[in-house]
Amino acid sequence: MFALATWDPLPRVERIGSEMSRPPLSVILATIEPWPDLARCLEVLEPQVAGIGGEIIVGDGHGEALEAGHASSSALTWIRSPGTSVFELRARAMEVAKGEIVATTEDHCVIAPDWCEAILKAFQSAPGMMAMTGPVINGSQARLIDWANYLHTFGCFAPPINTDQRERCPPNANVAYRRSVIPEGTLSPGWIELVLNPQLFSAGLFGVTEDMTVTHVQSHGLFGTLGAHFDNGRSTTGLRHISLSRRQLPWHVYRGTVRTLSRSASLRPVIRRTLPLLFVLSCCHALGEVAGIIAGPGKSPTRVR
Hints:
The chain folds into two domains: 1-134 and 170-215, Alpha-Beta Complex (Spore Coat Polysaccharide Biosynthesis Protein SpsA, Chain A), CATH 3.90.550.10; 138-158 and 220-305, no CATH class. It is 41% helix and 14% strand. The chain has helices at residues 39-52, 68-71, 86-96, 115-125, 144-154, 191-202, 221-238, 250-261, 268-295, 300-303; strands at residues 25-31, 55-60, 76-80, 101-106, 109-111, 131-133, 136-138, 175-178, 206-208, 214-216. The longest helix has 28 residues, at 268-295. 46% of the residues are buried.
């Protein structure tokens, strides 16, 4: 069902800890930041994973994402590849994951205290679903640009999730997959986010549970946020090699974004205040998409966090 793309030679992989037969859950964390960026996430994640006999796989694009105490954990695999993008790191981690269920989140996300348990229960209660997602809560609310950044990417996944929208695939900040949708062999960077997720989403194979919750904590400032959305847009088209179309028009991106937020009643006041910023971010994303189509991904994937 899912076609594989080609991939260049693999980066060096350091496996820390003993081989495990088949844990119930693998959790993938891809990061390009040094320690202690992962500290807050691991503080909540590690006890949960240990409690169910699972594993954590850290894809490290910086080279120093872990400190010595965590690097020696028996339940952790450390993939070190400085300069590598999160798209590539996530693909490499997916290839070595052993779990019956494979979940992804981000280094700057804080998972709920029962996140791992909620994932396993969700798949048990929905045997026909090949992937699951849940709410992404905004953990950076001090500035309007941070709200705009959150709403543009995750707004339709604010609780309660808008299950009717068809504009946005579930984000890998809070996604889990059955092993059966993960092919053997190498995966190209971006295949998970740009091929697998859309196929599952369009086929109605993405389940939703409100119990599987993460809090997204990220603040780039004004210009950093503009650059982040340009890089995101350039990565999404450059890694897929798609053709130019009206989907890359700023108004099309903006309209789709606002449409996904239309049912978020609890967020309407802040949505109204951020509409001008949402349009600016849509322009940045659309410009990035055009650049990706014309000139390829460039260095944008390595700057996406």
